C-alpha cells in the first residue's frame, strides 16, 4: 500500500498546479464533446435541465423514435440514472458563492502569506516556467472576483427563484469549475507572488494589455448583465428579443466566453499570447455553453417555430 501511495504522490507531483488546472478543463470539455455523439434522446436525458428537460411521453420526431428503438436499453438506463440526484436549478447560486468565497480566500492567503497559497505557489514555481507579473495577478484576480460577485448578486436579486430540476452532475461540475478557475487566474503568477513576499517594496507597472482587456471585459460584463435582466423580466418561457438576442440565441453565453478570454489575454505570461490555464477554461466554457445553447435553439424551434430563430446565430457569430 505504501508503494502505491508513493507512486500516486510521484504522479501528482509530475504535473504542476497549472497543468492540473489545464487538465481538468480539457478533460471536462472532452467529456461534454463526447456526450454529443450520443443519440439525441439519450443526450437530452443527460444534459438538459429546467424547462428543456425531456419528459416522458411520445417523441416529437421520427428521428427520436428511431434513436429510441436503436438504443432502448441504453436510453432506459440513462433516463433512470438521471432521475436520481435531481437538485433545484436555483442551486446555480452555489457556483457564485463558491467563486466569491474562493476569491476572498486567495486574497486572504496572499495578504497573510498563508501556508496553502505558499505551498501551491512553491510547487508551481519549481516548474520553472515564465510567470505573470504581480500586476497581472492583481488584475486577473479582481476581474474574476467582479464576475463572481455580479453573478451572485443576479442570483439573489435579479433572477426569479425557480424549482426546475437539474442533474446533480451539472451542479458538481459547475462548483468544480469555479473552484479550479479561482486558482487558475493566479497560478501562473506564482513566482511573482513569492518574489513579492521576499521583496515587498517592488514597484508596480501598468500592463500594456490593460486597456484592451478592460474594454472587452467591460462590454461583455455589462452586456451579460443586460441579457440576464431581460431574461428575468420575461413572462415564463417567452422568446427573448432585446439587445444581442436579436442576433444570437444565447448572447449571455457569448459574453461569458468574452469575459474569460479577456482575463486570459491580460494574464498571459511573457512571450505568450494567452494564459494557458485560463484559455483552457475558456475552451471548457465554450464547449459546455455551446452544447447548452444548441439545445436551447432546438427548444425554441419546437416551442415558437423555427422561423422565429432562423436568422440568429447560436452563440459565436459567424462560426456557430
Would you write up a description of this structure?
Its main location: membrane. This protein has 320 residues and is mainly alpha-helical. It has one domain. 67% of the residues lie in helices and 2% in strands. It has 13 helices and 2 strands. The chain has helices spanning 2-14, 17-35, 40-47, 62-70, 72-82, 93-112, 115-125, 134-157, 168-187, 190-198, 210-233, 251-266, 276-304, and strands at residues 86-88, 165-167. It has a two-stranded antiparallel ribbon. The chain is globular and about 65 Å long.
Task: List key phrases describing it.
mainly alpha; transmembrane helix; two-stranded antiparallel ribbon; 3-oxo-5-alpha-steroid 4-dehydrogenase activity; 320 residues; Dfg10/SRD5A3; transmembrane; globular
Describe the structure in brief.
The chain is an all-alpha fold and 320 residues long. The chain is built from 13 helices and two strands. InterPro entries: 3-oxo-5_a-steroid_4-DH_C, Dfg10/SRD5A3.
How is the topology of this model organized?
Blueprint: H1 2-14, H2 17-35, H3 40-47, H4 62-70, H5 72-82, E1 86-88, H6 93-112, H7 115-125, H8 134-157, E2 165-167, H9 168-187, H10 190-198, H11 210-233, H12 251-266, H13 276-304
Antiparallel strand pairs: 1-2
Helix pairs in contact: 2-9, 2-13, 3-5, 6-8, 6-9, 7-10, 8-11, 8-12, 11-12, 12-13
Mean pLDDT over all positions: 87
User: Order of SSEs, N→C?
Assistant: HHHHHEHHHEHHHHH
Q: C-alpha Rg, in Å?
A: 22 Å
The side-by-side strand order for the widest beta sheet comes to 1-2
Gap from first CA to last CA: 50 Å
Instruction: Give the biggest sheet.
Output: 2 strands, antiparallel
Amino acid at each position: 500500500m505504501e508503494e502505491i501511495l508513493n507512486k500516486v504522490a510521484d504522479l501528482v507531483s509530475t504535473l504542476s498546479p497549472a497543468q492540473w488546472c489545464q487538465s481538468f478543463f480539457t478533460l471536462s470539455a472532452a467529456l461534454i464533446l463526447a456526450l454529443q455523439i450520443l443519440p439525441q434522446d439519450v443526450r437530452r436525458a443527460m444534459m438538459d435541465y429546467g424547462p428543456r428537460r425531456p419528459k416522458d411521453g411520445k417523441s416529437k420526431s421520427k428521428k427520436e423514435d428511431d434513436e429510441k428503438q436503436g438504443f432502448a436499453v441504453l436510453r432506459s438506463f440513462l433516463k433512470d440514472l438521471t432521475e436520481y440526484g435531481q437538485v433545484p436549478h436555483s442551486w446555480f447560486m452555489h457556483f457564485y458563492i463558491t467563486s466569491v468565497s474562493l476569491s476572498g480566500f486567495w486574497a486572504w492567503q496572499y495578504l497573510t502569506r498563508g501556508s496553502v497559497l505558499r505551498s501551491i505557489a512553491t510547487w508551481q514555481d519549481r516548474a520553472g516556467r515564465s510567470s505573470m507579473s504581480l500586476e497581472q495577478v492583481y488584475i486577473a484576480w479582481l476581474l474574476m472576483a467582479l464576475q463572481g460577485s455580479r453573478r451572485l448578486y443576479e442570483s439573489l436579486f435579479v433572477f426569479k427563484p425557480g424549482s426546475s430540476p437539474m442533474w446533480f452532475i451539472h451542479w458538481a461540475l459547475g462548483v468544480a469549475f469555479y473552484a479550479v478557475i479561482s486558482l487558475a487566474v493566479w497560478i501562473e503568477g506564482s513566482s511573482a507572488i513569492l518574489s513579492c513576499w521576499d521583496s515587498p517594496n517592488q514597484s508596480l507597472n501598468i500592463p500594456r494589455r490593460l486597456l484592451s482587456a478592460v474594454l472587452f471585459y467591460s462590454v461583455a460584463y455589462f452586456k451579460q448583465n443586460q441579457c440576464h435582466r431581460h431574461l428575468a423580466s420575461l413572462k415564463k418561457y417567452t422568446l427573448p428579443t432585446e439587445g444581442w438576442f436579436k442576433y444570437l440565441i444565447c448572447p449571455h453565453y457569448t459574453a461569458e466566453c468574452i469575459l474569460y478570454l479577456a482575463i486570459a489575454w491580460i494574464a498571459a505570461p511573457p512571450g505568450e499570447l494567452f494564459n494557458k490555464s485560463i484559455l483552457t477554461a475558456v475552451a471548457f466554457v465554450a464547449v459546455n455553453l455551446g452544447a447548452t445553447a444548441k439545445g436551447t435553439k432546438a427548444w425554441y424551434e419546437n416551442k415558437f417555430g423555427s422561423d422565429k430563430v432562423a436568422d440568429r446565430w447560436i452563440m459565436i457569430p459567424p462560426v456557430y
